[in-house]
């Protein structure tokens, strides 16, 4: 789109609606499907080896740990350690044992929406970051993949199918300020057609730096975590789905036992490499609780967003029901509630993301 179009339509109609409003129809749809299948927790069997199928409360590392040799080769190296007293030594030991070196990404092992994700460049910075987390929480330290393109690939395969498919490709882009030698960071944000409408996503993270004047041409990325609700800009990339990309992702995900539904977050050197299915580096594998995030492209209509949501959640019920018929157990409504409460409690204790 042209600059004029961008300025006229910087946000979609619903892009930053409160979750209680946007997700109400989806909750009602879930309840209706649950009544149809006589089990509200059917989707938790969609990925039966993952806690709640990856709906909530699951460990990120437990999913990555299931990877076979094909999938493991594509996953960015990581290690797990516990927060609290002595966590710096544990983190450094875990890094050494896993062959990791700075810079790295530190994030909670249980979490969502980019909450608590930190980019750590040095040992000294690690020493400052770790006390921000609550004690006795599992943290992941992961290699920083310094590729310029980040994407979310939604993958679905039914248990009776030999081939999976990609239903969504979304590019995640961090907004960047460019200085003019006169304006403060806050002024640049407020002047931007998009960022100026949602400054609450950026200014708290810049506390103490808002009045800094960026030099002419100086660039400042405003967010590191690739999450829409934290300020990243999402762009629909479904047109870049190719047979080569589908075949590569299918080979990887079939090497994660009984994984049938979810989003794979990757980094790649270029869009062309993504189209060829080459050099994919997996950052996370998300289950039933993940979305086809192309809906957050500002050009998406409300109807298109709900159609995508209903279509994907329908698949979780179909896949979950098929797995239940094969003997896998669901979490049950109380199991879902327990995991959701656990995750909610942890999220409230994590520091602000970078």
Provide a quick synopsis of the model:
GO terms for molecular function: ATP binding. The protein is an alpha+beta fold and 354 residues long. The protein has twelve helices and eleven strands.
The largest sheet is: 5 strands, antiparallel
> Could you give the order of strands across the largest sheet?
9-6-5-10-11
CATH class of the domain at 77-144: Alpha Beta
Poorly predicted regions? 1-6
CATH homology group of the domain at 77-144: ATP-grasp fold, A domain
Question: What would the CATH topology of the domain at 77-144 be?
Answer: Dna Ligase, domain 1
- Overall shape: globular
Note the beta-strand portion. 15-25%
Classification by helices and strands: alpha+beta
Task: Provide the gyration radius in Å.
Answer: 20 Å
How would you describe this protein?
There is one protein chain. The chain has 354 residues and is of the alpha+beta class. Among the domains are: 68 residues, ATP-grasp fold, A domain (Dna Ligase, domain 1), CATH 3.30.1490; 48 residues, no CATH class. Helix content is 34%, strand content 17%. The strands form three sheets. A five-stranded antiparallel sheet has the order 9-6-5-10-11. A four-stranded antiparallel sheet has the order 1-4-2-3, covered by helices on one side. The chain has a two-stranded antiparallel sheet with strand order 7-8. Strand 5 and strand 6 form a beta hairpin. The longest helix is centred in the last third of the chain and has 24 residues.
């Amino acid at each position: 789109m042209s600059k004029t179009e961008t300025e006229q339509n910087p946000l979609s109609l619903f892009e930053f609606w409160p979750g209680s409003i946007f997700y109400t129809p989806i909750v009602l749809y879930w309840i209706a499907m649950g009544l149809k299948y006589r089990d509200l927790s059917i989707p938790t069997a969609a990925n039966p080896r993952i806690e709640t199928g990856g709906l909530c409360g699951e460990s990120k590392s437990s999913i990555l740990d299931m990877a076979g040799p094909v999938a493991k080769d594509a996953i960015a190296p990581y290690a797990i350690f516990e927060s609290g007293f002595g966590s710096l030594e544990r983190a450094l030991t875990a890094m050494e044992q896993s062959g990791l070196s700075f810079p790295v990404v530190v994030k909670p092992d249980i979490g969502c929406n980019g909450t608590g994700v930190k980019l750590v460049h040095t040992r000294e910075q690690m020493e400052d970051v770790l006390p921000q987390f609550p004690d006795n929480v599992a943290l992941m330290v992961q290699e920083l993949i310094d590729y310029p393109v980040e994407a979310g690939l939604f993958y679905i395969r039914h248990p009776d199918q030999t081939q999976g498919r990609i239903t969504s490709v979304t590019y995640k882009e961090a907004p960047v300020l460019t200085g003019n030698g006169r304006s403060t960071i806050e002024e640049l944000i407020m002047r931007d057609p998009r960022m100026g409408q949602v400054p609450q996503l950026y200014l708290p993270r810049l506390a103490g730096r808002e009045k800094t004047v960026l030099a002419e041409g100086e660039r400042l990325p405003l967010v590191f975590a690739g999450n829409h609700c934290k300020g990243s800009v999402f762009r629909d990339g479904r047109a870049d789905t190719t047979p080569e990309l589908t075949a590569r992702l299918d080979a990887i995900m079939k090497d994660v036992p009984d994984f049938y539904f979810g989003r794979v977050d990757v980094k790649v050197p270029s869009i062309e490499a993504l189209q060829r299915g080459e050099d994919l580096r997996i950052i996370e594998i998300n289950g039933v609780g993940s979305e086809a995030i192309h809906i957050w492209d500002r050009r998406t209509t409300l109807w298109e967003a709900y159609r995508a949501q209903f279509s994907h959640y329908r698949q979780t019920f179909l896949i979950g029901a098929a797995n239940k018929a094969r003997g896998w157990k669901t979490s049950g409504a109380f199991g879902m509630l327990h995991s959701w409460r656990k995750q909610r409690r942890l999220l409230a204790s994590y520091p602000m993301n970078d």
